[in-house]
Design goal:
The structure is a single chain. By secondary structure, the chain is α/β, with parallel strands linked by helices. It has one domain: Leucine Aminopeptidase, subunit E, domain 1, CATH 3.40.220.10. The protein is built from 7 helices and 9 strands; from the N terminus they run ββαβααββαβαβαββα. Strands 1-2-7-6-3-5-4-9-8 form a 9-stranded mixed β-sheet, sandwiched between helices. A hairpin with a 2-residue loop joins strand 8 and strand 9. Helix 4 packs across helix 5. It starts with a strand and ends in a 7-residue tail after the last helix.
Length: about 250
Protein backbone atom coordinates (compact mmCIF):
# COMPACT_ATOMS: atom_id res chain seq x y z
CA UNK A 1 0.00 0.00 0.00
CA UNK A 2 1.17 3.49 -0.82
CA UNK A 3 0.71 5.79 2.14
CA UNK A 4 -1.23 8.97 1.38
CA UNK A 5 -2.09 10.51 4.75
CA UNK A 6 -3.07 9.67 8.30
CA UNK A 7 -6.43 10.46 9.89
CA UNK A 8 -6.33 10.95 13.64
CA UNK A 9 -9.46 10.54 15.76
CA UNK A 10 -10.42 12.81 18.64
CA UNK A 11 -9.00 10.13 20.94
CA UNK A 12 -5.67 10.35 19.11
CA UNK A 13 -5.98 7.00 17.33
CA UNK A 14 -4.39 7.08 13.89
CA UNK A 15 -5.70 5.33 10.77
CA UNK A 16 -3.48 5.16 7.73
CA UNK A 17 -5.15 6.13 4.45
CA UNK A 18 -3.48 4.83 1.34
CA UNK A 19 -3.95 3.36 -2.11
CA UNK A 20 -2.82 0.58 -4.40
CA UNK A 21 -4.10 0.76 -7.96
CA UNK A 22 -1.64 -1.75 -9.39
CA UNK A 23 -1.63 -4.89 -7.23
CA UNK A 24 -4.31 -7.50 -7.73
CA UNK A 25 -6.79 -7.66 -4.86
CA UNK A 26 -5.88 -11.31 -4.32
CA UNK A 27 -2.25 -10.34 -3.75
CA UNK A 28 -3.26 -7.58 -1.33
CA UNK A 29 -5.24 -10.15 0.65
CA UNK A 30 -2.43 -12.68 0.58
CA UNK A 31 -0.02 -10.04 1.87
CA UNK A 32 -2.50 -9.38 4.71
CA UNK A 33 -2.87 -5.75 3.66
CA UNK A 34 -6.67 -6.06 3.64
CA UNK A 35 -9.12 -8.11 5.68
CA UNK A 36 -12.44 -6.64 4.46
CA UNK A 37 -13.60 -5.22 1.13
CA UNK A 38 -16.27 -2.62 0.32
CA UNK A 39 -16.97 -2.90 -3.41
CA UNK A 40 -19.43 -1.41 -5.87
CA UNK A 41 -22.03 -3.79 -7.28
CA UNK A 42 -20.88 -3.05 -10.85
CA UNK A 43 -19.91 -6.37 -12.40
CA UNK A 44 -18.05 -7.19 -15.61
CA UNK A 45 -14.98 -5.01 -16.24
CA UNK A 46 -14.90 -3.68 -12.70
CA UNK A 47 -13.25 -4.40 -9.33
CA UNK A 48 -16.05 -6.85 -8.49
CA UNK A 49 -15.94 -8.58 -11.86
CA UNK A 50 -12.15 -8.81 -11.83
CA UNK A 51 -12.12 -10.37 -8.34
CA UNK A 52 -15.34 -12.38 -8.24
CA UNK A 53 -13.62 -15.75 -8.70
CA UNK A 54 -11.11 -15.05 -5.92
CA UNK A 55 -13.81 -13.72 -3.57
CA UNK A 56 -15.94 -16.80 -4.18
CA UNK A 57 -13.03 -19.14 -3.46
CA UNK A 58 -11.81 -17.28 -0.40
CA UNK A 59 -15.20 -16.71 1.22
CA UNK A 60 -16.71 -20.08 0.29
CA UNK A 61 -19.67 -18.39 -1.42
CA UNK A 62 -20.87 -19.55 -4.86
CA UNK A 63 -19.85 -17.17 -7.62
CA UNK A 64 -23.40 -17.24 -8.97
CA UNK A 65 -24.72 -15.99 -5.61
CA UNK A 66 -22.31 -13.06 -5.71
CA UNK A 67 -23.39 -12.12 -9.24
CA UNK A 68 -27.11 -12.44 -8.51
CA UNK A 69 -26.93 -10.41 -5.30
CA UNK A 70 -24.83 -7.71 -6.97
CA UNK A 71 -27.20 -7.49 -9.94
CA UNK A 72 -30.24 -7.30 -7.64
CA UNK A 73 -28.72 -4.50 -5.62
CA UNK A 74 -27.70 -2.63 -8.75
CA UNK A 75 -30.63 -3.08 -11.14
CA UNK A 76 -33.70 -4.03 -9.10
CA UNK A 77 -33.44 -2.77 -5.54
CA UNK A 78 -34.95 0.74 -5.16
CA UNK A 79 -33.55 1.15 -1.64
CA UNK A 80 -30.03 2.22 -0.73
CA UNK A 81 -28.67 -1.09 0.55
CA UNK A 82 -25.57 -3.01 1.47
CA UNK A 83 -25.40 -6.73 0.71
CA UNK A 84 -23.11 -8.47 3.18
CA UNK A 85 -21.07 -11.51 2.16
CA UNK A 86 -19.58 -12.92 5.35
CA UNK A 87 -16.91 -15.57 4.97
CA UNK A 88 -18.07 -19.15 5.40
CA UNK A 89 -14.53 -20.49 5.68
CA UNK A 90 -12.64 -20.60 8.96
CA UNK A 91 -9.24 -19.74 7.48
CA UNK A 92 -10.24 -17.27 4.78
CA UNK A 93 -8.03 -14.27 4.09
CA UNK A 94 -11.03 -11.93 4.26
CA UNK A 95 -13.65 -11.56 6.96
CA UNK A 96 -16.13 -10.62 4.29
CA UNK A 97 -17.21 -8.32 1.49
CA UNK A 98 -19.84 -5.58 1.40
CA UNK A 99 -21.57 -5.16 -1.98
CA UNK A 100 -22.37 -1.46 -1.79
CA UNK A 101 -24.91 0.64 -3.65
CA UNK A 102 -23.16 3.03 -6.04
CA UNK A 103 -23.72 5.67 -8.71
CA UNK A 104 -24.83 3.03 -11.23
CA UNK A 105 -27.44 1.58 -8.83
CA UNK A 106 -31.16 1.98 -9.31
CA UNK A 107 -31.31 3.53 -5.84
CA UNK A 108 -29.04 6.43 -6.82
CA UNK A 109 -31.33 7.81 -9.50
CA UNK A 110 -33.55 9.75 -7.11
CA UNK A 111 -30.61 11.60 -5.56
CA UNK A 112 -28.80 12.93 -8.60
CA UNK A 113 -28.56 12.49 -12.32
CA UNK A 114 -26.47 9.31 -12.62
CA UNK A 115 -23.05 9.62 -14.26
CA UNK A 116 -23.47 13.25 -15.31
CA UNK A 117 -24.55 15.01 -12.13
CA UNK A 118 -22.39 16.32 -9.30
CA UNK A 119 -21.88 13.58 -6.66
CA UNK A 120 -24.63 13.51 -4.04
CA UNK A 121 -22.50 13.68 -0.92
CA UNK A 122 -25.03 12.25 1.57
CA UNK A 123 -25.35 9.09 -0.53
CA UNK A 124 -21.61 8.37 -0.67
CA UNK A 125 -21.05 9.36 2.96
CA UNK A 126 -23.87 7.22 4.38
CA UNK A 127 -23.10 4.17 2.25
CA UNK A 128 -19.44 4.30 3.27
CA UNK A 129 -20.14 5.00 6.94
CA UNK A 130 -22.59 2.13 7.34
CA UNK A 131 -20.35 -0.30 5.43
CA UNK A 132 -17.42 0.59 7.69
CA UNK A 133 -19.64 0.34 10.77
CA UNK A 134 -20.90 -3.11 9.80
CA UNK A 135 -17.43 -4.46 9.04
CA UNK A 136 -15.99 -3.03 12.24
CA UNK A 137 -18.81 -4.06 14.57
CA UNK A 138 -19.38 -7.55 13.15
CA UNK A 139 -15.95 -8.58 11.88
CA UNK A 140 -13.59 -6.42 13.97
CA UNK A 141 -12.18 -5.27 10.63
CA UNK A 142 -8.76 -3.62 10.87
CA UNK A 143 -7.61 -3.27 7.27
CA UNK A 144 -10.37 -2.06 4.98
CA UNK A 145 -10.25 -1.71 1.20
CA UNK A 146 -12.68 0.31 -0.91
CA UNK A 147 -13.29 0.37 -4.65
CA UNK A 148 -14.79 3.30 -6.57
CA UNK A 149 -18.49 3.76 -5.76
CA UNK A 150 -18.98 5.86 -8.87
CA UNK A 151 -19.84 4.60 -12.30
CA UNK A 152 -16.85 3.35 -14.26
CA UNK A 153 -14.72 6.28 -15.37
CA UNK A 154 -16.71 8.93 -13.48
CA UNK A 155 -14.96 9.03 -10.10
CA UNK A 156 -14.81 12.47 -8.46
CA UNK A 157 -12.62 13.94 -5.72
CA UNK A 158 -15.74 14.66 -3.63
CA UNK A 159 -16.53 10.93 -3.45
CA UNK A 160 -13.12 10.10 -2.01
CA UNK A 161 -13.48 12.95 0.49
CA UNK A 162 -16.89 11.60 1.57
CA UNK A 163 -15.38 8.12 1.95
CA UNK A 164 -12.62 9.43 4.21
CA UNK A 165 -14.94 11.74 6.15
CA UNK A 166 -17.16 8.76 6.96
CA UNK A 167 -14.10 6.87 8.19
CA UNK A 168 -12.96 9.81 10.33
CA UNK A 169 -16.37 10.27 11.94
CA UNK A 170 -16.77 6.55 12.62
CA UNK A 171 -13.41 6.41 14.37
CA UNK A 172 -14.25 9.59 16.32
CA UNK A 173 -17.40 8.15 17.87
CA UNK A 174 -16.25 4.52 18.11
CA UNK A 175 -13.02 4.54 20.13
CA UNK A 176 -13.20 0.75 20.45
CA UNK A 177 -12.72 0.38 16.69
CA UNK A 178 -9.26 -0.79 15.70
CA UNK A 179 -9.13 0.25 12.07
CA UNK A 180 -5.45 0.38 11.18
CA UNK A 181 -5.72 1.22 7.48
CA UNK A 182 -8.16 2.24 4.77
CA UNK A 183 -7.05 1.60 1.20
CA UNK A 184 -8.46 2.80 -2.11
CA UNK A 185 -8.07 0.03 -4.69
CA UNK A 186 -8.96 -0.87 -8.26
CA UNK A 187 -9.66 1.11 -11.38
CA UNK A 188 -11.06 4.60 -12.00
CA UNK A 189 -9.34 6.24 -8.99
CA UNK A 190 -6.05 8.13 -9.14
CA UNK A 191 -3.93 9.83 -6.50
CA UNK A 192 -5.20 13.27 -7.56
CA UNK A 193 -8.73 12.25 -6.51
CA UNK A 194 -7.49 11.94 -2.92
CA UNK A 195 -6.38 15.57 -2.56
CA UNK A 196 -9.35 16.64 -0.42
CA UNK A 197 -8.66 13.97 2.20
CA UNK A 198 -5.56 15.76 3.48
CA UNK A 199 -7.76 18.60 4.81
CA UNK A 200 -9.98 16.34 6.91
CA UNK A 201 -7.92 16.29 10.10
CA UNK A 202 -8.73 19.95 10.66
CA UNK A 203 -12.30 19.81 9.35
CA UNK A 204 -13.29 16.65 11.24
CA UNK A 205 -12.78 18.44 14.55
CA UNK A 206 -15.85 20.60 13.85
CA UNK A 207 -17.92 18.22 11.72
CA UNK A 208 -20.01 15.43 13.20
CA UNK A 209 -21.89 12.35 12.15
CA UNK A 210 -25.68 12.50 11.79
CA UNK A 211 -27.15 9.04 12.43
CA UNK A 212 -29.57 7.59 9.90
CA UNK A 213 -32.06 4.74 10.02
CA UNK A 214 -30.74 1.27 9.19
CA UNK A 215 -32.65 -1.98 8.97
CA UNK A 216 -30.83 -5.32 8.79
CA UNK A 217 -32.75 -8.18 7.19
CA UNK A 218 -31.32 -11.66 6.72
CA UNK A 219 -32.28 -13.24 3.42
CA UNK A 220 -31.00 -16.65 2.41
CA UNK A 221 -28.09 -16.41 4.84
CA UNK A 222 -26.99 -12.95 3.71
CA UNK A 223 -27.53 -9.73 5.66
CA UNK A 224 -29.16 -6.93 3.69
CA UNK A 225 -28.61 -3.55 5.35
CA UNK A 226 -31.19 -1.02 4.17
CA UNK A 227 -30.32 2.65 4.68
CA UNK A 228 -32.81 5.47 4.95
CA UNK A 229 -32.55 9.17 5.67
CA UNK A 230 -35.59 11.38 5.27
CA UNK A 231 -37.37 9.31 2.64
CA UNK A 232 -40.36 7.96 4.57
CA UNK A 233 -42.71 8.74 1.69
CA UNK A 234 -40.64 6.66 -0.70
CA UNK A 235 -40.51 3.77 1.75
CA UNK A 236 -44.30 3.83 2.11
CA UNK A 237 -44.66 3.84 -1.66
CA UNK A 238 -42.35 0.85 -1.98
CA UNK A 239 -44.36 -1.09 0.57
CA UNK A 240 -47.64 -0.33 -1.21
CA UNK A 241 -46.29 -1.32 -4.63
CA UNK A 242 -44.55 -4.46 -3.35
CA UNK A 243 -41.14 -3.38 -4.71
CA UNK A 244 -39.44 -3.61 -1.34
CA UNK A 245 -38.43 -7.24 -1.80
CA UNK A 246 -35.23 -9.21 -1.52
CA UNK A 247 -33.70 -11.18 -4.42
CA UNK A 248 -35.27 -14.55 -5.14
Amino acid sequence: MHRFTELRSRQGIATLVGYDFDSSFENLAKRREVDSFIVSTEDGFSPLGANRSFLSSDLGIPENDISQLADWNRFENPMVSLVVLQSRKKNSLLHGVVLAASESSESYKRFAEPRYGHPYRDFYYNVTYEAIAYASANWKAQRLALSHLSGSGTFHEDIATCNAEALAHYCDITPSAKIESFMFVGCCISQKHLAGIARLNAEAKTGQHHPISTNVVNHGGYDLVHLEWGHDALRSTLRSTGRLTAPA
